[in-house]
Amino acid sequence: MTDMRVEALDVHSPVDGQLIGWLPMATDEDVAGSVLTAREAQPGWAATSAAERGAALKAAAQAIRTHATDLANVIRSETGRPFASAREGVLAGVSTLEQYAELGPVHRGRSLLGAHDATDLMVPEPRGVVVALTPWNDPVAVACGLLGAALVTGNAVVHKPSERCPHTGVLLAQLMVDHFSPGVLQSLTGDGTVGAALASSPHVDVVAHVGGTATGRSIAAACAATGAKALLENGGNDPLLVDADVDPVWAAGQAALGAFTNAGQLCTSVERIFVHQAVSDEFLAALCEEARRWNADPQPLVDVRLREHVHAHVTEAVADGAEPLVGGAIPERDGAFYPATVLDRCTPDMRVMREETFGPVAPVRVVPSFERGLAEACVDEHGLAATVLTASMAHAQQAWRALPVGTVKVNAVFGGAPGGAAQPRRKSGTGFGYGPELLDEMTAVKVVHLGQIQPSSQANRAAS
């Protein structure tokens, strides 16, 4: 029998390379039709009360919570992320939707003090049609942030999940779509060509993208041509500074957590480490022990393509003089596994220090002073996040003011209060990605002046 299926996305397990399944690729007609449907549905959704939109979002969050285990299992099969961590990400997405369900109805404009016989207002309005292009490394949590903020403010959304986790995106859409008016939320599957077609549509008002830098730049160019707003988080090259006055064993635990969690596949993973020479020997010894512990229960990278990218960074660094203390070699086993790797003697010109590796690699540079480490950490084309481990309040103050990034964490590689939002800089993107500020990104302010009709001079004379 002839295979009649359309062009498809084949998804393979990162654990053993076996085919998990396939999904049809959206066509140009699918893209155009989805955008048109969203355009037609959006005015009615915008006219729905903010309270009703919030209630719909809350119902969608509950549906996702009910099926959190199902989503976590799909994420694990497609991306290799451990079940517990995947489920934690799903529940983080639920919390984000619930947060926006509460924040949306109280999102407000303001009045202006004008003439006594007039009213002046600044009113937030939905921008229109939002395209959300979301990644594979934390697919539900990230998608819920963008979808939640866009929907609760009255926009219609066309969502395309990463081609590395399309089944996750399909299930998420199935759980959410029925809670909104027809056409308000749609999901398309496809690779980068589908994302590019959505981003370049002249009928789209916002393109929100979380993913790679090169893709982000092409989206920014497309938005410059169409006039759409680009909302981008494009990864980073996040530094970790280890001061001379901290416990080097504790610091190594923090470094390992930042570099090896989710096999280094987080936007805010630690990508380069600057350690004070006074504690460098103990720090490196402890970091190597941490790496061996992480390697005892390895997690695969999402696919072999990413592993090739990671290994290229490592092999180039070794060729240029870096010393692999742990890891650094592709294991002889099925799947896309790569070991937690510690590199000593790294220099600023190495690609592993200049670019986002996005794998379980900890490149270490020993520096003679905190000031030297801070100066080198500030030299980067990205600007997402940074971490500083120090017992000195003066050094903490100096560092958070100097580091040209959107988020600075002192004495913890992860963490932060709910609702926090930051603006990535330079190659890392533009615009707020979370928090109440994301509601501002999804709306445009309209200034309204309501004046009174003044009686004409003729009418005044006739009345007299």
TrEMBL record:
EC number(s) from the headed UniProt entry: 1.2.1.16, 1.2.1.20, 1.2.1.79
Any Pfam family: Aldedh
Keywords carried by this UniProt record: Oxidoreductase
MF-aspect GO terms: glutarate-semialdehyde dehydrogenase (NADP+) activity; succinate-semialdehyde dehydrogenase (NADP+) activity
UniProt KW Oxidoreductase keyword: yes
CDD domains reported in the protein's UniProt record: ALDH
Span of domain Aldehyde dehydrogenase: 7-448
Annotated protein name in UniProt: Succinate-semialdehyde dehydrogenase/glutarate-semialdehyde dehydrogenase
Source organism of this protein record: Saccharothrix ecbatanensis
